[in-house]
Every structure is written in C-alpha cells, then in structure tokens.
Amino acid sequence: MRRRDVFELLLLGAIWGASFLFMRLGAADFGALALSLLRVAGASLLLVPLLLWRGDGPALRRHWRAIAVVGLINSALPFVLFALAALVLGTGLMAVFNATAPIWGAFFAWVWLGERLDRARLLGLAIGVAGVVGLAWGKAGLQVGAGGMSPALGIAACVAATVLYGLAANYTRQRLQGVAPLALAAGSQLSATAVLLLPALWAWPAVAPPATAWGAALMLALVCTGLAYVLFFRLIAHAGATNAISVTLLIPGFAMLWGWLIMGETPTPAMLLGCAVILLGTALSTGVLKLPPPTPQQKSREG
User: What is the tens place of the pLDDT at every residue in 23-77?
Assistant: First the structure.
C-alpha cells in the first residue's frame, strides 16, 4: 500500500474504534432505537448528496430491493444490537466481538455459497469461535443493568450483530456484485432510516438528552458512519479489498484506547488475551495471515 493508503487505513481504524465510544456516550440517554435512527439518518444526509453528485442514483433505483435488505441486516438491526450492548459492555469489549464479523462472513461463504476454505481459513474459524467462547465465558454475567440488559444479553447482542454482518457481506456479494459502492452505502442508510423511523419515534426519550449525548450521536452519524463509508470504499479502490478488510484488526486497539482515555476503561489481561485469539482467527479466516505451504512430506502423507 502507498503511504497515503496506510494513513487512511489507520484513520479508518481510529474512526470505527471511536464508534463504540460514541455508542456508550449516547445509548443511555437516547435508547438503542433513537440513537440508531439518528446514526443512519445523519449518515444518509451526508451520503445521498454525494451519491447524486457522483451520478450513481440510477444504480440505487435499479437495485433498491436488494439494497434495502442490506440496509436491514447490515445497518438497522446491527446498530440497534450494538447500541443495546453499549448499555452494559465496555467500549473495547464490544469492539473485540465486532472483530469476529469477517469470521462469520467466511462461515456463511462456506455453508451458503459453497466456497471452499483452505486449512488456514478453517483454522481461523475454529480459533475465532474459541476466542469468542473464552472471552464470553468470564464476562457473561446475568445481573440486569441499564435498559433491562445484562452482560450476557449484551454479549449475545454483539455476536448476533456480527453474524448479521457476515450474512450481509455474502448477500451483497451474491446479489449486488458490481453495484456502485456509493449507491450501496447511501441506499442502505436510507432503507435503515425507513425501517427504524416509526419504532424510534415511538421509543423517543421523554427527557431531552444532554448536549454530550447529541454530540455523540452527531459524531456517530457523520464521522463513524458517513465519512467512514467513504474512506472504506476509497481504500477498496486504491489498495484492494484484502488490505481494506484488515482494518478489522485495528479497530479493537483503537476502541480500547478511546475507552481508556475517555471512559477510564482499563482492559484486563483476560480481555487482551481473548482479543489476541479472536484477531488471530480473523487474520487467518480473511487471508490477511497465511499458513506456510505444506512440505512435500506433508503432501505425501495427506495423499
């Protein structure tokens, strides 16, 4: 990658890592539904004018049904699930579970699309799932906290969100291959806004949220969703999809940094170990990290 690509990759990791901080800062005051609505609606306000300026509107009109499905399973539902988790889980812990999204993507590519996985990717799947189970084992308390959520439910919400991300990646690959990325990004945020509008208005907080919560919602919408999509698709265009997806490995570190600096959340040794195991599985399952090729002796034994 060029030096500029590396800078944009680090910047994207820092921005997406901060999204978990902003969810922590806004979820308690807005609630999961209202915060998620503000996130997708604000991102739409940024992305739709850019879509029209680029002339990608026809692509959105042609594929609006499939894009609407992506908006539901890649934005509306996962954003609500992570906002619920933010009521009871720390910034870094949510980001670590988020890092399993490519693992679920590889899993669905295997069981749904019939994609053949080599030994490195199969090993990555096993390691990643083991990391999730190990990390959740020590964190899944049942004591109910804010919003009727417990740590166990928060972890389940994070895992469900990442499973949806993995499903959405394969649905996009199957149904929207070659569609202009900006049409997909803007259209998915618009459809997510339509899905969340009525439920979020029904659940709108009775007490006006403070300025801190509004600032978090604004940053979540414009920077962590709208701007982040633009950066991500720029990276895919300039550095390739494999390099762009490696941002997943950077997000937990930045999230832990922001959580420590802003919220005073100190990562525990068990959390750092679980993070390392999950990131190893992610790197293997996405092909960022590869195993050495088998030796002739190994090939002969396998044969």
Answer: 999 999 999 999 999 999 999 999 999 999 988 889 899 999 999 999 999 999 9
Q: How far apart are CA 293 and CA 299, in angstroms?
A: 10
Beta carbons of 182 and 46 less than 8 angstroms apart: no
Q: Is 296 exposed, middle or buried (0-12, 13-18, 19+ CB in 10 A)?
A: exposed
DSSP state of 259: I
| Distance (Å, whole) CA 57 – CA 61 | 6
Looking at the chain, list the stretches that DSSP marks H as alpha helix, in order from N- to C-terminal side: 3-30, 32-54, 57-62, 64-71, 77-85, 91-98, 101-111, 119-137, 151-175, 181-202, 211-221, 228-239, 241-245, 251-258, 269-285, 296-302
Q: Where are the domains of the chain?
A: 3-302
Residues 221 and 41: beta-carbon distance below 8 Å: yes
Residues 297 and 303: their CA atoms lie apart, in Å, by 10
Q: From 164, 162, 166, select the one nearest 135 (Cα to Cα).
A: 162
Residue (of 5, 66, 3, 4) closest to 241 by Cα position: 5
How many whole angstroms separate alpha carbon 275 and alpha carbon 100? 10
Tokens found for residue 263: 């919220």
The answer to whether 259 and 86 are in contact (CB under 8 A) is no
pLDDT tier at 145, thresholds 50, 70, 90:
low
* CA 207/CA 96 separation, integer angstroms: 32
Q: Quick check: helix, strand or coil at residue 209? A: coil
Dihedral angle of Cα 190, 196, 201, 203, to the nearest 10 degrees: -150
